[in-house]
User: Which sequence fits this backbone?
C-alpha cells in the first residue's frame, strides 16, 4: 500500500527544506504548474499538520536504446524504450537519516509496477541531483546510462524485488 498521496492545495510546502534549493523550489514554486500541464505527478508524505516532509515526481518518457548498457539492451529491438522517470525525490532535512528517502523510492517503484500493468514501460530512470543521490541509487541497483548522468533499473528487476 502506498505511503504517499498526490500533492494537493491543502499540503503545506512553504516550510519544506531538504538542503538543495533546486528541490525545495520545485515543490514550492513549480510543482503545481507541472501537475496542471500533466508533465509530472507529485506524490508527498505529510506530517500530522499537513506539512510536506518528503516527495517524489513521476513522469513518462523514453530513452534511446543506445544509452542502455549492452548487457541490458541485447534483447530489445526498438530504438526508443519506454520508461517512467523519477525526476525528483527529496526529504525534509529534519527527517533525513531515517530511511524516508528509501521508503519514498519503494513507494514510487510500487506505483510504477502498478502503472506497468496499464501502460507499457521497460524501466525506471532517475535523475540524481548530486554524488550523494548517485550513490543512493547505485546502492539500490540502478546503473548509469551511457550518455547522461541518468540511471536506469529494468522493470523486470523491480518486479523480482517485490516477489
Assistant:
Amino acid at each position: 500500500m502506498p505511503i504517499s498521496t498526490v500533492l494537493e492545495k491543502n499540503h503545506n510546502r512553504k516550510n519544506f527544506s531538504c538542503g538543495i534549493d533546486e528541490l525545495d523550489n520545485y515543490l514550492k514554486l513549480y510543482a503545481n504548474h507541472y501537475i496542471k500541464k500533466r508533465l509530472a505527478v507529485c506524490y508527498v508524505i505529510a506530517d500530522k499538520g499537513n506539512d510536506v516532509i518528503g516527495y517524489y515526481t513521476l513522469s513518462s518518457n523514453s530513452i534511446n536504446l543506445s544509452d542502455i548498457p549492452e548487457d541490458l539492451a541485447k534483447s530489445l529491438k526498438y530504438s526508443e524504450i519506454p520508461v517512467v522517470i523519477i525526476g525528483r525525490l527529496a526529504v525534509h532535512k529534519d527527517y533525513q537519516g531515517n530511511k524516508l528517502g528509501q521508503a519514498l523510492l519503494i513507494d514510487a517503484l510500487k506505483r510504477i509496477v502498478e502503472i506497468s500493468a496499464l501502460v507499457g514501460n521497460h524501466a525506471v530512470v532517475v535523475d540524481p541531483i548530486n554524488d550523494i543521490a548517485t550513490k543512493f541509487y547505485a546502492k539500490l541497483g540502478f546503473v548509469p546510462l551511457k550518455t547522461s548522468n541518468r540511471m536506469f533499473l529494468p522493470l523486470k528487476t523491480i518486479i523480482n524485488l517485490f516477489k
Remarks:
- The mean pLDDT is 90.
- Residues 67 and 79 are 10 Å apart (CA to CA).
